[in-house]
Amino acid sequence: MIYSTEPVSANNVEALLFILFLLMFAIAASWYVWQEGVSKDRKRSKLLLDCILIVTSVVPPELPMELSLAVNTSLAALSKYAIFCTEPFRIPYAGRVDIACFDKTGTLTGEDLLVEGIAGLTLGRKGAAVSPDGAHTQVTKVEDVNDETTLVLATAHALVKLDEGEIVGDPMEKATLTSLGWKLGQHDVLTSKPGAPARVGGRVLESVQIKRRFQFSSALKRQSAVATTIGEESQRYLVGVKGAPETISTMLVSVPPYYEETFKYFTRNGARVLALGYKYLNSEAELSPGRINNLKREDVEANLHFAGFLVLQCPLKEDAVKALQMLNESSHRVVMITGDNPLTAVHVARQVEIVDRDTLILDAPEHDTSKTRLVWRSIDDKFCVDVDPTKPLDETILQTKDLCVTGYALEKFRGQKGLRDLLRHTWVYARVSPKQKEDILLGMKDAGYTTLMCGDGTNDVGALKQAHVGIALLNGTPEDLSRIAEHFRMTKMKEIYEKQVSLMQRFNQPTPPVPLHIAHLYPPGPNNPNYEKAMLREAEKKGPAAVAALQQANGIPTIVSPGAQALQQANANLTPQQHREQQAKVAAAGLADRLTSTMMEQELDEDEPPTLKLGDASVAAPFTSKLANVIAIPNIIRQGRCTLVATIQMYKILALNCLISAYSLSVIYLDGIKFGDGQVTISGMLMSVCFLSISRAKPVEGLSKERPQPNIFNVYIVGSVLGQFAIHVATLIYLSQYVYSIEPRHENIDLEKEFEPTLLNSAVYLLQLIQQISTFSINYQGRPFRESIRENRGMYWGLTLTSLVTFSCATEFIPELNEKLRLVPFTFEFKAVLTTLMIVDYAGCWLIENGLKRFFSDYRPKDIAIRRPDQIAREEARRLKEKEEEEREKEATRKI
After folding, report:
1. What CA–CA distance (Å, rounded) separates 375 from 364?
2. In 3-state terms, what secondary structure has residue 405?
3. Given 3.40.50.2300, 1.10.10.10, 3.40.710.10, 3.40.1110.10, which CATH number is that of 114-313?
4. Between residues 6 and 804, which one has the greater pLDDT?
5. Is the pLDDT at 589 greater than 70, yes or no?
């Protein structure tokens, strides 16, 4: 399989170390068996087989299966949110995420940009609306702008019309052309809207044709097109250019006054601003038919005239603020990485609470042509301080300000010691190229942080590949998925029904009635009693007009499939008597109907995912959300935490079970202790039910500030496993010695004889059963990451019932049960000792687990994700307010 990056994960290394850890105990147990066997002159070949059995049993063969079960359960849970994963080993990484990075346009903001209009057309004029800093704030509607601006908007784009008539390209450019009212036809011909033609040189112009395009480049930050006018006596060639305002300003013949103040006014308010420029070419000298493709881009895009600022609004997605609040409040560092203007990026970052303090931008100073200086500047340009990339960053700025860094600044810091410090304290990256996005993620990974990247476009591909958790958002809506799923369901049901019809006809049986869900696809008749009801239901889906049309026409044409045609033909050939018999059979065809429904339900149980058009981002990212909702990211992290906790828990439980097995297959085995078939069956069923319940535990709704343990090799987990193992071994040794004080130990033990109930194997069986129960119940970790053991009904009741059975057998509360399990009778004193020992074993393990958890477990986030006291206070106030509003709503509902 091809992975987005190297498939080697920490899980593989941990699994190897885990197996080596258990292997040491297996070798020690095998050595003990070998030494004891040799001293008692047992057959060497049999001893070798016993040693091999110990090694293969202690290294858990079920480990891959259990881990796969946990991951597959997570995949199924994510698919319910329309989230799909191509690299399942990355799911536990989602539970370790420290930094969550987001693209802006199309990810946090909507895909559909709103064209607000054209600004800057009043620059240099008197009487225009002006802000205190001189910015011209007037915005002209696109349909009311001058002819040159209209032609630039109509030509400076990369839209293409396919043969099928569909226009493909950037949604922003689609929105611009739609608001302009011009139509794109074949061969790149653009036609003005009826009644409003443009004018060039006083002549009416109805259409233009794009002759050559210079595509947008993230490095150049602009795009342009050369177009010729159509319909005039003499053709003229127009160059239309569109790009970043700071880039276009260097190409203008003259920069209008307050140019910079005007575009910054709109970017500070969150708008996306593109500068427009144009010029006319001398067609006779410069654009003869043979020279059009020899034009150099730098010549075409020079000496332009200013044509205004295209102002577009990017409204936030409905769930963006809520999703990022959840991430902020759950100990994650949230970062924005975008190619947009830094002022626009900071405005959106403030809306979604990525930044909440005064923000400084690290960029080149305004109007600096040397390309060597670097400064910290404030949003309003009132603060400006020079920065030397070779020196340490100012700690006061790092601690008191939120930082925005541009791609230009990142290049200046490349290879410098201060780069890691800069990455650690930056909240917003703006004007960065796709390669720089990738470098930012690599820098975060090199610093030891687990990263998440969420994007939706081609420019995010590199970053999505480099992140530990890359998430691509498609543009689907719940309604889209519902319609696609419904279409798939109809098609599937139709195929199943037609197979059933064919089967019935083959054996000369009456055809079953058409199910209600697909009755509208078949003609009315005796076998389609639900036709009218289905037609009405389909009409209601389309709206009142369709219902009225149906009632007026008393039906609409139906889709007649091959199966339906066969059904019609079969009904047409019936005699009146056969027709009456057919109707009677239809009335009594409940069994066939149920059979058909059962077949449908069985085939429809596994819902196949709806199909949407995938993009570059979804191909590169391990995770893809078919919905455009940002809430997919918290959902993935929730499931990742749940899977990570389940994985760590399985390692602990398997380690304890295998260590106990090592002791059982060595020391206990040599003491002649064996268990009956019924006893082994009960313990095996217990383990199977518990492992299944662990993997199927669901994550809790919210995201906790606490973080799950990232790996198994730490003081808490290793100490807990060894401590609990020591308690189990100590109780087993004590029990064995106590039994030997009652019943003398046999010197010559026949290890090959059949199982016979004895006091020793009966007592050891019950003690090991309670040890298994304690292993699952004590090491189960529920909240705050997933449902608690009480909420996990299968595991809770399984452990409860098994505990009742165990203590019932230890106290002989139900003697018949002891007989069924082939347990020997116990004296009153022995029952008291055994029961006490079982309680001591459980209590000792509980104390060790909880003691080590309290003193050695580390649920704290990494330093980069720690929230400031003022942020925590604000979050607490918001939660309190939300709780009060919820209580008021409940009170209002109760009164109603």
Report:
1. 6
2. strand
3. 3.40.1110.10
4. 804
5. no
